[in-house]
Amino acid sequence: MAASSRKVFEVFVSKIPWTIASREVKEYFSQFGQVKKCLLPFDKETGFHRGFCWVGYATEEGVQNALQKEAHLLEGSRLQVQKNRKPGGTQRQNRDSDGS
Amino acid sequence: MAALLRSARLLKISPASLLQITGANIHGSAVARLCGGAIGGRVAGIRATQVTHSFGVNRVSWPYAGVRHFAVAPKQQGVSKDEGSSAVRARQAQQFDWALGKLDSSVRRTGRITKTLLLRIFHDICRSGYPSGNQALLLLRSCGSLLPEMPLSERNELAHRIWDKLQELGASYDASHYNALLKVYLQNEFKFSPTEFLAKMEAANVQPNRVTYQRLIAAYCQEGDIEGASKILGFMKSKDLPITEAVFNSLVTGHARAGDMESAENILPVMRGAGIEPGPDTYLALLTAYAEKGDMEKIRQILEALDKGDATLMDRDFMQLVFSLARAGHHQHVPEVVERLRHDRGFIPDAMNLCLSLITQGQEDTAFAVLKTFPTLQAEAQNGDSPELGNFFLRHCVNMDKSVEKLQTYCKELQDSGLHSSALQFTLYCTLEAKKTGMAVHLMKVMKEQGLPIRPHYFWPLLTQHQRDKNTQATVEVLKGMQDLEVLPDVETYSSYVLPTFDSLETARAALKEAGFSVDTEGFSASEVRAEAVNLPKLLVLLSSPSCPAVDLSLFRGSLTLGFKKSSDVECMTKITELLYQDPRFSQTSGGPAEAVSYFLYNLIDSMTEEELLAQEEKLRQYFHQLKNTNVRIPVNIYRGIRNLLESCHVPELIKDVVILVDGKEAIDTLDIPRGKEGRGVGLEKRLEELKAENKPLGATLKQLILSLCAEEKLDRALELKAQHEEDMAVGGYAALINLCCRHDNVEEALNLKREVQRKDSSVALDAGKYLALVKVLSKHGKVDEAVDILKEMKQKDVAVRDATVALIFHVLNMAGLRGDAATVRRLQETIFSLGLAKPTANLCSPLITAYLESGDLTGALDAVLECHKQYNQMPRIHDVLCGLVEKGETELLQKAMDYVSQERGEMTMLYDLFFAFMQTGKHREARKIIETPGLRARPGRLQWFAEKCISNNQMEALEGMVEMTAKLFECDRDEMYHYILRLCKDTNDWRKADATWTKMQEENVIPRERTLLLLADIFKSNGQEVPFEVPEVWYEGSTEAPQQDSKSKSTFSAPSPAPTPLSPSDYQLRLFTLCKRGKVQEALKLLKEVDQKGMVLGPAPYDSLIRSLLAKGSIEDAMAVRDIATTRIGSFQLSEVANSLLVISQVKCGKVKEAQATLTSMLQADQVPSQLAVTRLVQGLGTRGEARAVQEVESTIKAMASSLNLSRMLFINNTALAHIKRGDIEAAVEGLEAFYTPGSEAQGADAPVASMSYVFRRVMEENNEDALDKLSGMAERLANHFAVYRPASDLFLQYLESGRAEDAKFLLQRCAAISEQKDVLLSYVTRAAQKPGQVHKIKTMMELIPDFTEKEVMYPYLIKSYSQDNDLPSAKALYQKMQEEGVAADELCLKRLATLYRNGGEAVPFEEPPESFKFYADKLREKTKAQSLVEDD
User: Whole-model pTM?
Assistant: First the structure.
């Protein structure tokens, strides 16, 4: 249970259109606070991402700001932003990836 | 858009779903009426044989329509016979059902099947190795117009491929298959010779039937060959076969295609002359003929006449017309016909299929014209999503390689008319998905011209394919495309999608340079660093070279971690770390190198598993020590993180080696050094004394001591210490003390301590758990105001509320609820919600209802539910409230409740709520009325909820009632429903009921899935009954019986068997199957070896069959030998699912659990689904051997399919616990079980209170592990006394009884009196015990221990039953006398049993024996109890 003691300030973003990559997501979510990481998993088999992403803020405030905004529109698509239900949803299996 | 269309369509259907079926019936009978009596009901399915229907689908003609959609059955019966839907049995049933379900849902939703889906099912059926006749039929039928996206010729090739492959695998074909193939030929306009076809049938010894001839006529007519058609017609007449409308319709087409419109028209009067009125299809044939000629005038005339007459055409017919016009090149007339479309129900899927067919056949412009007439969907506008009309159109155009220019025009038009907001992007997406590089780059150019961004990841889908193919040339091509579009490949593009395609970094570099790309970009360099990160010396060279560009550590941290884990070159690791620490090139982010490197160390440790850490401990130690010699230092906070990781992985020794790297060591206090476990309390007291003597600060040690005393529950000593050292007390110490006081229910002391700590430091906050413990104890003692104050303080101090806290909150509320204290619950609840400490979930709202229900105030309960809904949009415990209202006959309140539910949650929800309330209270008549409401459809989730409830509470009557009443419910999964009943039969071990259920299933024509049959067989077998059907899986037979059978078989079978003539492989195959089926395995093995020596190769099926038979006898070695033979003969041979499952079971049985686990893993990798039994045995085997981790591994790998395998979570929980116990770690076992049973913790799930852990108790008792039993018993008592969770205690109690430890049972009962109230569990135990002989003493002990847990009227009959099982007349006599003395009436069933006993004992029956059979009285008794409950309720 190493993860439980760590504090993570993450939101879970879904319904991301395929045209958007993590750079754009990060850019967009930076308006709510300093984004420490942005994990948008790509399917190495298909080359497309899976449409969801974890955005990690430096502080709880960033999370709150992001959650408070009613509609998140990015390039004409409406993103769904939720509180990350499973803290550490980015655990072991994802940890080995670069660029986070 | 497809999904939206789908939902819109479903919505339209839902209220009228029953109507739809009625409609189908009416249609069928209307046709029958028109065609006159001679043809009768057999015509219903014929419309589908219509020649010209090349994209229409007859939705009700699926073979199983009679099975699932009960309502259709009566009309379909006549057809289903020659369409080949004889009952599918046994082993293929499940797979058939599954495949059918898949295809059916596709057809039902969209009117079509995709090629991918069909191929997948084909592949799966081949994989299983035994295609049944029905599966073959299913696949063949799908190769025609159901595939609008495939060109006609391809479809036909596929049909032939399937035909040949299945035949090879042993499917046998009958007339239904040939007819299906003919239909596919017609739909695919395949040119073939009908005479040859007939010859082929004759050669295969299959008799053609009426349908065959009809379709052959249609085939001739399609070619305009009237002469050929007439020949067949004459043949039909000579055989006296009826000539149906379909034949005439074909003739219309035939004459028209022969160019003779006059004769075509003349068919209609001929039909009338023969007593058949021309139907819509006849007119359609005529219209189609004119459409092919482009004669719009005639078409108008016919349509006009039709409008006046009573035959009406459907949208689908007009679409056929559109199709014919377009294909014949008369596009100009299309709009006129399109205008006539009425957009009936089901319009969109049909129209989509029309468009797809048009595109496939090169008529995309017509398709686009049709697309534009699609009604725009309001749903899309409403939910705010951007419009996306025509996705299917664009995708199919891409797949069919339409030109980019055309696509561009379509996209522009869609976008301009506001039908699609991102048509170009979507088109590009499809192109990328289809890996069409040229088209994609072309499209991107178009997009770029329009100012749309083009990003590196757009190219990844193209690169993945080349990576798989190792195609460097094509990869370079894609990169060129990027260059053309001025998109710079980034590090991800290179690392993940480009470099892996090349053999090495060097070749990549060279190839890119040669193709004229710059390799000095940041993207390429970073990817280079990343690629080299696994090779540390090389990386060091690369990084330390001055030419290396700036690359942030975060870009290669993951790979570097990997490299460090793999490497053993400590020196190199140190140098790289140092370099990263010093060189600013590698840390461009805010924290600077120190932070970046420290985090890297943390990540390194974090990425390692416990085993890896243990294995690499020494390497890491050296690494840290070498780092110390450099100037690398890490901050304290990161050190703490590392320390926690190391502690949790049980390598605390390493902490000492990390601590030397800490920057500013003075910040580390005593707590930060690793702690030992044992002897802490004593040691600490000593240390405290020492410190005191030396006059040093006591704070930290005192706190540790208090904590450890609290952990040992030594409250008095801890309080004493506190009093002594009040001024040195830290907050943590207080917190622990407060918590302990709360647990000991010492509310005054807890409050005092709380005030004390407040005085010391008013800003101090406790954690949520401590606060809530206070709230709980305060509200328990009626100090609600103080409790509310505590909650407010939590809010003020902003105490973090996590999931576990929410569970605690529920607990606090529920305790008050169970006391019936509504006022307190309400007050606390409102405070909690209004402060926002927790969200008002259904769970958190429920205690208020509980409070009213506990105090019997139904009005209050209902009002509370409604209030909860208004305030929080939750309806907690509505079912319980409704049951209460029904029971008490509160009609008015019930009406109010239903009106409300109906208004807020919809009528369907209301109906289900009411249905379940009636069922629960035994009012089956009322329940039936509800469930038969027209338009109601099955909601599997809700039905399952009720079924599970019945199963766990052992309510067979209610369950059976529900299953029976839902027989005609639309879309109700009948197999699932009967499976519920059987599960309960299994629980109560009632094979008679199971047998009755089996009969009912046959009566209802339910095709059981494999798991249902297995369950049923299991029930029969465990009761020593014969299984009345072929069991789908070969069962594991005890090896003790096997040799006997074998020797017998040798004498009876092998003697007459010498075969004089040489046999062909298929003969051998057949013999092998027969031998396997009869259980003559050794003989089969011998035969196979003979065959093999002759060098003969059999198909995969016989090998697999033999392997399974061998495994069933427990001969793993022989089975593996056969597998080896099979693999040498057939390279791709693979064990089937069934065989693999058996292998797992056999391996477990031989104690090879690790191998078994490996087998399971390989099964899952091969996409196979293991049997429930295999998983169960494996998990049990692992549990027995103490492999807790492996149990969890299996659980996590199998998770996705656990519910479909019907695996209980308890299997894993119980066996994990057993594994811990086996290894001697009883604490871990208790911890796991306790966490599961502790209520309210959402993670642990709602099934906790009902799930049984008897298995654990049984095993522990069997192994005489008293220590474990003690601890588990303690846990069970804790759960019962603290949390009102009685299941574990009850399980233990019954297990004591079961193993004859009555004394222990008695003591347990004294400590946990509530066990005696667990009537359901206890009674179900009695029921089970009474079913087997020799169990009567258990029932008696139970009655002695808990004399009054149920009425004598209930108990005595069980005792009588038990005596009669034992054939114990004297005891039965005595009991009967006692019953008479106590005035307990014996029912007829009892008397019947008694009478039998008397007779068996050779005594005269002293009373009049009830004349009827046992079953009669059993049924009567059931009826009576049912009627009684109804009377009581009314």
Answer: 0.49
